[in-house]
Specification:
Layout (H helix, E strand, L loop, with lengths): L3 E6 L11 E8 L2 H14 L3 E4 L5 E3 L4 E8 L4 E6 L2 E7 L4 H10 L2 E2 L20 E2 L2 E2 L4 E8 L4 E6 L11 H4 L4 E12 L8 H6 L8 H14 L22 E2 L1 H13 L11 E4 L2 E4 L1 H7 L11 E3 L7 E3 L5 H19 L8 E3 L6
Parallel strand pairs: 2-5, 3-5, 4-19
Antiparallel strand pairs: 1-2, 6-7, 7-13, 8-13, 9-10, 11-12, 11-13, 14-16, 15-16, 17-18
Bound molecules: flavin-adenine dinucleotide.
């Protein structure tokens, strides 16, 4: 069993660099240790928060009054069978290292998800996605410890209830500890290249390779500070702070009309809008800018990224309470302007989600 420590600071373990201490902390490097720690916490009646790389969490200033269990298991198994490859990865493996390995091995399916921070076990939680792809497209199954049934379970992708930035795991945060994730990839490509910005960036390459697509995605992400770089002024964030809202058609038309009236756009068709289940998906970052908050907006320790309006960045010396206050002001301004409510993407730890 890995060592249990008391009063461990959380801020250095999160990409935002915020949050107070964990009352107890265990970093588990083997699946058996994850199960032992969860069973021990259950016997003690202790709350548990499962931590991966800390790139999608907002930890309260008071910290977490329970056990933070960091998942640090390692291991990747790749088996090829004809045109298909089965990849089974331990939950604690760094995600981008897995993507790099699969691209090097000429396996297609994860290349568009290059540069996303965090660990593999977290990727099914919010059905991680970028550049037109989501993990749900290649996910075969998740192996997890079911804290309710108190046994290991294999959840096939079809039972993970994956949707845009959500899943059964995200909706039941206290039930499953993900131990391993299985993907099926295509041997020899071709890469997925369906996102317009990515297509434009590789234009001129009639048949881009997996490596070219990965490198292009990384370049595009770096331009938006969406790759964690210690030298970047926007480095402390949780990525996109809000999810893209899905609204009904008349609401989307009203938003376009309001943006036209304010002079933010000249024609209604300049507003990004995409067909989505249940209505029309709008771009949260665009709504923030259209509501009058440009990139870099905000004084003091928190503001919008200077490269991407959808990321709230911690410029240093701030508190989680200040972050929440800033986020609420951004959300309220978008609502006042357009009547559209933005939902927060990262997970709140030791405190209620933004009301
Ligand atoms: C710069 C930047 C760019 C980003 N870009 C993207 C992007 O393009 N697309 C995207 O979808 N996300 C993006 N994100 C968000 C984030 O990187 C992903 O959500 C990532 O999968 C989180 O992984 P993590 O290991 O850091 O999870 P954590 O932040 O540690 O945890 C996130 C959630 O997952 C749970 N969790 C983690 N591991 C497990 C496990 N093994 N079992 C059960 N629950 C677990 C936690 O309890 C928590 O609820 C970005 C973040 C940053 C900082």
């Amino acid at each position: 069993m890995n060592e249990r420590r008391q009063g461990v600071p959380m801020a250095p373990r999160t990409s935002l660099g915020l949050g107070g201490p964990a009352r107890s902390y265990i970093c588990a490097s083997e699946s058996a240790h994850i199960v032992d720690a969860l069973e021990d916490a259950r016997r003690k009646g202790e709350s548990v928060f499962i931590l991966g790389g800390g790139s999608n969490v907002i930890v309260a200033d008071a910290g977490f009054d329970g056990l933070v269990l960091e998942i640090a298991t390692r291991g990747v198994q790749i088996s090829v069978d004809g045109s298909r490859a089965r990849v089974v990865v331990a939950a604690g493996e760094p995600w981008d290292e897995l993507v790099a390995t699969t691209v090097q091995r000429d396996l297609a399916g994860l290349e568009c998800l290059s540069g996303i921070p965090g660990r593999c076990g977290a990727t099914p939680i919010q059905n991680v996605g970028a550049y037109g792809c989501e993990v749900g497209e290649t996910l075969v199954a998740v192996t997890a410890w079911d804290r309710e049934l108190r046994r290991e379970v294999v959840v096939p992708a079809g039972d993970c209830e994956l949707s845009y930035r959500s899943s059964r795991f995200k909706r039941s945060p206290d039930r499953f500890a993900i131990l391993a994730v299985e993907f099926e990839l295509r041997v020899g490509g071709p890469p997925t290249c369906r996102y317009p910005e990515l297509q434009r960036a590789v234009a001129g390459e009639p048949a881009p390779s997996l490596t070219q697509v990965r490198e292009t995605v990384l370049t595009l992400r770096r331009r938006k500070s969406m790759v964690i770089d210690p030298a970047d002024e926007n480095r402390r964030s949780a990525g996109s702070f809000f999810t893209n809202p899905v609204v009904d058609g008349p609401c989307a038309d009203r938003v376009a009309a309001a943006a036209l009236a304010s002079g933010f756009i000249e024609r209604a068709d300049q507003m990004p809008r995409y067909p989505a289940t249940g209505g029309v998906k709008l771009a949260a970052g665009w709504l923030i800018e259209a509501a009058g908050m440009a990139r870099g907006y905000g004084e003091g320790p928190f503001g919008l990224s200077s490269k991407h309006a959808l990321a709230i960045v911690h410029r240093g010396g701030g508190t989680t309470a200040q972050l929440v206050e800033f986020a609420r002001s951004v959300r309220d301004r978008v609502f006042d302007r357009f009547g559209v409510e933005l939902a927060v993407e990262p997970v709140f730890v030791g405190m209620p989600a933004l009301e």
